[in-house]
Task: structure prediction
Amino acid sequence: MGYRLLVTLVLTLHFGFLAYLVVGGFLAWRWPRTIWLHAGAAAWGVLVVAAQLTCPLTYLEHWARRRAGEHGVGQGFIDRYIEGVVYPERYAALAQALVAVLVLVSWAGLLRRLRTTALPRPRRRLWWRGSR
Result:
C-alpha cells in the first residue's frame, strides 16, 4: 500500500513539474522572483530532452512499482502518460517545440513587463503651471 501511494505521489509531482514547466514563466509575470525557479526547471527540461536523460522521478516511480509487486515500466513518464494521450506520438517534436515557444514567449513577456514597470515615467508639465 505504501509503495503504491509513493507511485501516486511521484506521478503527481511529475505532472506538476510539467505543468510548471509550461506555465511557470507566465506565473512569473505575477511573481517575478520565481523566474529563477522556472529557469532551473526549463534548463532541466532541455537537458533531459537534449541528452535523453532519465528523470530521477522516473527512477523513483519504477523502483516503487517494483517494490509494490508491479513490473517497473520500461518507458519514461512522458512516453507513458503524455505521448499518445495528450498528443499523438508522431507530434512529439512539435509538442516540444510548442513548449519551448511558450516558455520563450512567457520570458519575453516578463522582460517587457519588467522594463515598462522599472523605467521611471517622465514627469509631465501641466500647461497652467508654466515652466519652472
The first helix runs from residue 2 to 30. The helical segments are 2-30, 35-50, 56-67, 77-82, 92-118.
